[in-house]
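Format notes (please read before filing issues)

Several people have asked whether sequences and structure tokens are stored in separate files. They are not. Every record keeps both together, in the order shown below: the sequence lines, then the token lines. Line labels are part of the format and must not be stripped during preprocessing.
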Amino acid sequence: MNSIPTTFNETLPSYTAVGGKERYSSTGLSAVILNRCGRYPRRTFFQELEKTGFDYVISIESSPERYDVEELSGRFPFVRFILLKREISLGEQINLAASELDSPLFFVLWNDLKIIAGGSAGRMAERLSGSQEDSKDSGEKKSPFKRLCTVPVIQNSRFETLPTLIAPVIFRKKIRTIFFEPHTENLPSLYPFDGIGIYDRERFIRLGGFDSTLKNTHWQFMDFGFRAHLWGEEIRLTQQTKLSCTGEIPAEDNTAESSYRRFYLKNLAPEFRGDCAHLPLRRFPGYLFKFGEDPFAAWEDFSESRRWVRTNRFRWRCDARSVTEQWNDAPAAKPLFSIQEN
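Then the structure lines:
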């Protein structure tokens, strides 16, 4: 298994960038477009983004069908098309886009989404600015924005609100995710549903982005969400920004395989005491028994995770159980459905 990244984008995938030389505006908010398979009216889509007034647009072109890129880059000079040389994970795509931008905020969208409420890019960025009191210097550099990630309300083509807020619970020593329908401003979410949300780029990079060694999207998102909350960051809802989804959102694969094992060692196994975290040696027998790996391979993975936890030990603010318990204090909501992790 590859080494756990200790800095943001330690290794970048091979790609070619086309266009995107001109800044369209100066709002502080750019858009990152992820593309699902299928044919969508791309010209109309980019025209809508143009009207919204994003500084730049990054379009991650994961499909081999790129017949219209040259024409679109000429028509929309503020759009930078990233042509991937090989398939990469969803989290890696977002990491790559963040490394290509210099806007303080970026809005991750899919090509089958439309912004139906929220106003201009400038207005969306303005609402995320922190107060002067939040920005006061207290010995460490403060971001001028409220939080790591702000997630919007998402509706389907029938204008029904989708259950896109995610809460973690521990049941019989297993992690479960419960999906809620958003109903109150500022509700927390474990991670941004399908990656969709407005990210504070500085915080995102400081957190390390998504772990590129986790190839399973579900566990990559779970790792990002838990790490964010363990390290004191926030992911919350805004009801002032709404999106409409015209396509079908694919289900996540939550199979407990190698990605889950790394997620477990990085997020659930460490203990937090005093002002730091550590992964004690006494956790190893239980880990070996739980996953039934080859002892030598299991020890290698365990040791790699111990080194990573030690490097970042002072960034912890709580343990995994505390992360799950914070949802008990959130306003009551009825879960729409739940998925139990294996």
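For reference, the curators noted about this record: The chain has a mean pLDDT of 89. Residues 214 and 259 are 5 Å apart (CA to CA).
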